[in-house]
Amino acid sequence: MAIDPKTVESDRVLILDYGSQYTHLITRRIRALSVFSLCISGTSSLKTVADHKPRVVILSGGPHSVHTPGSPSFPDGFVEWAESNGVFVLGICYGLQLIVQRLGGEVRVGEKQEYGRMQIEVEKALGLFGSKNCGDTQSVWMSHGDEAAKLPQGFEVVARSKQGAVAAIQNPLRRFYGLQYHPEVTHSPEGMETLRYFLFDVCGVKASWKMENVLDEEIKVINETVGPDEHVICALSGGVDSTVAAMLVHKAIGDRLHCIFVDNGLLRYKERERVMETFERDLHLPVTCVDATDQFLSELKGVDDPEKKRKIIGKEFICIFDDFAHELEQKLGRKPSYLVQGTLYPDVIESCPPPGSGSTHSHTIKSHHNVGGLPKDMKLKLIEPLKLLFKDEVRQLGKILNVPEGFLKRHPFPGPGLAVRVIGDVTLGNYLDTLRLVDEIFIQSIKDAGLYDVIWQAFAVFLPVRTVGVQGDQRTHGHAIALRAVTSEDGMTADWYPFEGKFLADVSQKICNSVRGVNRVSYDITSKPPSTIEWE
What we know:
The chain is an alpha/beta fold. The chain has three domains: 13-202, Class I glutamine amidotransferase (GATase) domain (Rossmann fold); 211-409, Rossmann fold; 430-523, GMP Synthetase, Chain A, domain 3 (2-Layer Sandwich), CATH 3.30.300. 32% of the residues lie in helices and 24% in strands. It has a nine-stranded mixed β-sheet, with helices on both faces. A five-stranded parallel β-sheet has the order 12-11-10-13-14, with helices on both faces. The longest helix has 27 residues, at 306-332. The two termini are 29 Å apart. The relative contact order is 0.10.
């Protein structure tokens, strides 16, 4: 249970996703303009699209060609529906080519394919470029092999690339527009200005998406869903997401919320003590702490596959929540009906297959234990009040709910905990304790250097290899550790943080001198994509 996006009292921008790695960025950029945006599959039915009652529909980019049989497209009747309901449509990259092809134009393989930074020139200071002058140029990010060769009747070119390819088109009478480049990425420096002008000046959208409205709407939905005598369990992980979710539900139903914090044996260094102190001292939340270390680790023994680890952890959590609900039933005379989780929008996106894959289950990036890792026979109904929000929006909501700023700035920590930071079997040797000590040294060094708040996420990874080293004039055969630190806006894409060499050298020396058995430290300089943030 979460806010129904169809009930959001705001002008809505609906993004039809055709598989571009940048699609989520469109959603983020538009929300940054205080406009509610939502991303759904590009092959959704016309009824699904219409039920959202969007003011604007954006057709995303994607890896497909409109010439490929079975390539994804908007539903039949979409053009007529948009025109009869006054809906504005913007196609980006592949989305532009869909518009051209479906409305009677021609798309062909480009003579000169365009990838990366390109210069475009404004030919007509109209529509998308109404704030520009003819002849103005700007740098944009292109990623296409096909190009529009012949436009549908009534369309005109408003910008071209320096190579002469169509870069932007429009038909104001039909309210259809198209950009061959990606305005949502930072490599298109004037892209945000173009999106802003399109939404506010061309489409007349109002900037009315505010976190205060989200809070009021969520409380309303929770009170309408949870009966006056019903009780709710909240699974607290100690992270920002579940804590903000708990504070929100507590504000709605008060003492009928019962929080549980599970020590699954996969927590960071002294995490249990630190988190429980924060809950009691600063947040005043009623929390029951359950030590389930043996239960989790016994189930994980011998398991190497990261996806299996996530599924096992999700199942064990639910077993514990069911037991907790039974105990509460004995105490209250009524069994709780709902479970609160801090699921975020990126969790939902990453647990789904890519549009156009033709699959309902394969190609999953990863199953989040609170999305794809839940058993189908779970007895508790879910309340996920943050399911439509990105991480920075959750932090804004937490600030409104008076969650301490220091807590809100905590780096994300995965639901499966250190199970996805020990590569392979987490129960071997002293792998978990070693990783905890290394991670603590790394994070404390980052804090001491004043870098914690500028980094999105930082952590250590235990590698399943032994390496040769020399310590104390003796040959050693010790463990290898990887360090990871990234910057990001929402966790959907990320860049590795460029620490100074001296900082890394000092951290490596501290780790090798302080943590027994570790003789090699490496630093991960891979961005997302191509990798994920977590190693797994």
